Amino acid sequence: MLTKYTSRAGFFLAAFCPRPWGIGLPNLFFVLSISWAAIIVAAGITVAAGDVAAGDVAPATGSEVPSVHSASQWELIDNSATMSQVIDLNQHGHVVGIRDVPLANIGSESEPFVYMDGQEQVIPKPPGFTNLMPEAISDNRCVVGYVSRVIGHPEGSMRGFIFSVGDNQINVLPPLEGHNGSHAFDINDDGSVISGYSTGRNPQSMIPCVWQRSNGQWQTRALATIHDFNPYLLSSRVIVSGDGLHVVACITVEIIPGDITRYVSHLYQWTRNASDEWQRQARFDKALQLAAINNRTTITGTCQVENQRRAFVLNPQNQLQVLGLLEADVSAEAADINNHGQVVGYSDDPHGPESGPQAFIWSSGKVMPIEFPRPVAFSSATAINDDGQIAGFIEPTVEDSKQDKTISFVLSMHETLGEK
C-alpha cells in the first residue's frame, strides 16, 4: 500500500499517517512512536495480533448500489494549499483537524485547527513543546491529543493534553504516578472522561488510563491490566464511549520470551459502575485496531483478514462482523461509529497506480460509497455523529484543482438509518 500513493503525496500523508492506528504527518507520527518504538525494536519485541480467522467472524456484508451523493448538504473546508484533514467531529458539527501551512523560509509544518460555524481557531502548543496532534473533540468543545518535545527530555517527550476552545486554554495531562509520558486518544461527549495510556521507564510500563475531573483538576486513573507493559496500546488506541461509561483497549495477556519477545494481546472493556470504579471484562480473544465505541458498546475498527486490512463491527454480544467492500476493492478501514450503528471509513482497491481509497458509510447492513459534488481522485470519511453528519477529506482530481492537495469536508445527510 505504501507505494501506491507516492504520486499523490498529499493524500498519502493525510490518509496513512493521522490517527495513531493508521490514518498527519511523518514528523508527528515519528515523534509519537519513536520513544516506545525504539524501546520495542531495541528489546526485540513483537506485538502478536494476527489475522482474524474465518471462525471468528459473522458473514461479511457486501457492497450495495445505493450511495450517499451530492444532493446532501456539503461544506468544503479548503484551508490549505496542500493538505487539510478532519480528524474528528462532535454532535454539533464542529470539527478538529490538521492542515499544512508554509514556513517562513522553506517547507511547511502541520497546524492543528478547530472549525465551527464557519470560523477557524488554531490550537496553540504548550510552552516547551514543539509538536501537537489532536485526536478527538467533545460536545463542549474540548480537544484532546498529544504534545511532544525533544526525545530524552527528563520529564518525558510526549504528554496528553486537553484544549478548551471556549477560553483558548491548553493543559498538559499528568501521567500516572512514577510515569513520565502519556497520550490522550479520546474524550466522551460531555468532556468529563478522557482515555489514553501512561508510560514509565523503570520498570518498563505502558498502562491504559482515564483522566477524570476532581475538584477542578484532572486526575489520572489506571485501568486494571494483567501485565504492566501493554505495547499494543500504541497502535490499537484506547477509546471511550460518548456517555463516558465504557473504555476499550487491547492489552497484553501473555508474554512469550525468546530471541524476539512476543506480547500477545486481546481486546478488553472497562465499565464504570455506580461506585465510580472501572471493572474489566474480556471482549475478544485477539488484538484489533480500534476506531470507536458507541453507547451500546458496539465497536468498530480494522482487523486483518487473509493479510488484508478490513473494517469490522463487534456487537455487544462479542460477535465480530467483517464489513463488505465497495466494488472491485480488496481492503478497507473503519474510522468511526455513531449511536445508530452507522460506520464510516474508506474502501481501497488493489495495489497499482490507478484509482485509490473511496469514502464509505455502512448503514443498516449496507456498504455504500459517498459521492462528492466535485471530481475526486481519493476520499476518506473519518467521523460521523448521531445527526448523520460525516466529516473527512478528499483529494480532488488534478484537472479540477490544478494541483495535488487534500480538502476537508463536512456532509449533512438528509436521513439517519442504523441500529434500532
Determine the CATH topology: Methylamine Dehydrogenase, Chain H
Helix content: under 10%
The rough form would be described as globular
Detail the poorly predicted runs.
1-44, 416-420
Find the count of extended strands (DSSP E, 2+ residues).
Answer: 30
Mean pLDDT: 85
Domain count: the total is 1
Note down, in words, how this protein is organized:
By secondary structure, the protein is mostly beta strands. It has a single domain, classed as Prolyl oligopeptidase, N-terminal domain (Methylamine Dehydrogenase, Chain H), CATH 2.130.10.120. The chain has four helices and 30 strands. Strands 1, 16, 17, 18 and 19 form a five-stranded mixed beta sheet that branches. The protein is globular and about 55 Å long. The two termini are 37 Å apart. Mean pLDDT is 85; it is low at 1-44 and 416-420.
What is the element layout, followed by pairings?
Layout: H1 9-16, H2 26-42, E1 45-48, E2 57-61, E3 73-77, E4 84-89, E5 95-102, E6 108-116, E7 119-122, E8 131-137, E9 142-148, E10 158-164, E11 169-172, E12 181-187, E13 193-200, E14 205-214, E15 217-222, H3 233-236, E16 239-240, E17 246-256, E18 261-272, E19 278-284, E20 289-293, E21 299-305, E22 308-314, E23 320-323, E24 331-337, E25 343-348, E26 358-363, E27 366-369, E28 376-384, E29 389-396, H4 398-401, E30 407-412
Parallel strand pairs: 1-18, 2-23
Antiparallel strand pairs: 3-30, 4-5, 5-6, 6-7, 8-9, 9-10, 10-11, 12-13, 13-14, 14-15, 16-17, 17-18, 18-19, 20-21, 21-22, 22-23, 24-25, 25-26, 26-27, 28-29, 29-30
